[in-house]
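Q: Entry one of two.
A:
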Amino acid sequence: MIIVMNPRAGEEAIRRISTRLEEMGYRIHRSTGENRTILGVIGQRREEVAQTLEALPEVEKVVYISRPFKLVGREFHPDDTVIRLGEVAIGGPKLAVMAGPCAVEGEEQLLESAWAVKSAGAQILRAGAFKPRTSPYSFQGLEWKGLEMLSRVREETGLLIVTEVMDQFTVKDLAACVDILQVGTRNMQNFYLLRELGKIRKPVLLKRGMSATIEEWLMAAEYIMSGGNYQVILCERGIRTFEPYTRNTLDLSAVPLIKQLSHLPVIVDPSHATGKAELVPAMSRAAVACGADGLMIEVHPRPAEALSDGPQSLNPEQFTRLMEDLKGVARSVGRYV
């Protein structure tokens, strides 16, 4: 349930009510906006508790939540969540752009990619040290060696780093090395991994499962947040449909819908969604137009030589043009690049 506090309720009264509920076994999630404070109460529904609370002068009303996702829902947190990493904000008026190669192939390739995307305006370098692939014979990434390269490139360029975490056993080691941990589409419902990510205090980029409904996606985020980690970024990367002309079907309707249901920031990955570099610019512009808080775009110095996902990767020149094109679209929806 949600307790909407009276605007005149003081800090002492809010603390007193929160403490009493915690003593009764409830978990409290507090959200303080400009005009009022809302207490999200997680636990067994008890009518007598709600009736007692509603009788208090400090309480404006008590509202029950019917949706299964509580912490993720906008009822618990009416204001948009903005995740801050130093000078970079994900969810604010400035679009967060994550760009770079699908996989770390070598230090020269990674450094060249990093400087290219930074000069074009990206704030975060994306590159996979660990690469889960459909075929066991495909390039699987440089793993820990690749992670060391990412650390050195971050030190040299100043870019933040996002890379994929594969399982619950490596969460702490990766969290010590990178700025954002990415959960890939195949791991969206790896609940052991999600629970472990809930224990850390570092942003998690949660990609939508390739066949996941929006509710399943939000419930995966709920797993992370129920562990105490509220820094979750949602990423729409396309879903599997019957259409064979693109790698996946980019569900851009999910972006404004998520904005209605949840307070979490949402970014879009048009590279994995389409699988075709020539479609990435158009879908990037569309993503910004429909309200996305950022983009994740694959950029490789020489896409034809890429060991992973070359056909969907932009080269640096194409990425630079795209960043320029996005400025006008962003302005039209009150954002900037």
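Q: Entry two of two.
A:
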Amino acid sequence: MSHLTPLLPLDEHNQKLQSNVHPTDWVNPTPDGTYNMVVIGGGTAGLVTAAGAAGLGAKVALIERSLLGGDCLNVGCVPSKAIIAAAKRAAQVRDAEDFGIHVPEGVSIDFAAAMERMRKLRSDISPHDSAQRFQELGIDVFLGQGKFTGAHTIDVNGTELTFKNATIATGARASAPPIDGLDTVDYLTNETLFSLTEIPRRFGIIGAGPIGVEMAQSFARLGSEVFLVESSDGILPREDPDAGAILRKSLERDGVNILCCGRDLKLQPGEGGGIRLTVKSDKGGYDETIDQLLVAVGRAPNVEGLGLEDVGIEYSKTGVTVNDKLQTTVKNIYAAGDICSNFKFTHAADFMARTVIGNALFLGRGKNSDLIIPWATYSEPEVAHVGVNPRTAQEEGLAIDTYTQEFSGMDRAILSGETEGFVKIHVRSGTDKIVGATIVGANAGDMIGEITLAMKHKIGLGKIKDTIHPYPTIGEAIRKVGDIYNRTRLTPRVKAAMTKWLKWTR
């Protein structure tokens, strides 16, 4: 069985992509001696582990059965952000009238051209993850299925490699949850969505997490009539409810039909073609016929065919079991990325890989639990998060104080017409120690880095208050939160003492 992800349509851009990330004429090298590190899986975690280890002088082998670059390059971050960028331009032209800009003939969208642009840019980026590049870094690149045959050996297409350490970085794949009738209809996942060349006229999306809301908004802006089925927990259920409420309004403004609560969801072939989608809810339910369906919920770890059982590596339906040093139950075999992480993000995989390099090759003591991992949803407005929010703080028994700056009070946001959103920062109660934050608004994904830096290096909210930010910027909202915190320190007793002093010095 071939594990090679089909690249459709097979145009010049996808041919270029394949020639980089899985060249059909690739000849696997002949192993020579023991490797310091064998990496199985060529997504972000695997590529960072392989390149980082080789750069430090290790002898490294990299094994990939499908496309180097993994989900991020091929069916995730890269193509989705290209589509989001096209959709944003369409919305800006549509809304230009609000800024006194008149577009005489309205917006005309060429979906096929937007998708071709995505494929071109993806192929332009692909040399960074190419087999040739990693070979030039001194890494032995093997294309094929890897299977552990012992604690220090792995087989690739009949060739045995010997290693001192190994890293499992095989990631995860789309896995649809049990939905009544799903097996009776054709549907898309993130692995097939970006092969579309015609826009669905009526597009159903199941799942209101990051992928679901990003694609719902983008396809609505590009011309689809979108029906987004949310769960009982609402839009972006892992986020602060205030963030979900703002994003819901934005989606509805863009024309997304939000089908509430996702109970008794049923799918079946439509009588005249298409897919019939029915949902029961407190509002009475919905019954829609759609042309295409995207299932944007559910992930399964890629553990099959690796021989994990044969060598005693424990795993479950959520992935490979690791300790805080990212060791599996076989101590010289590590794991990193989506195969073992609750945080299925490219940047999380990157830094887990760095932890593995230090621990496996240099007797390091890096802990996965020490990583402070932000994340962002690239909707409009963006939603970014790090650390705890009020719900998770309560679950952890952590007392917090929360300080919020609304963008409606920020001059730059007012002038840009982007007043929906806020910076909300949580500190340990009675202190200025930052334990979490949520930012909703333009470029929130960029802004959250400042909060993550402060948390990592234990910079309190009081010191952020004292840091000059340029005016007028959206980022200035973070400093203003510091000002709000500082005002809480001006207790009646302190103010009375200051008033007395000032009166005496007059």
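A: Comment on entry two: The chain is about 35% helix and 25% strand. The chain has a mean pLDDT of 95.
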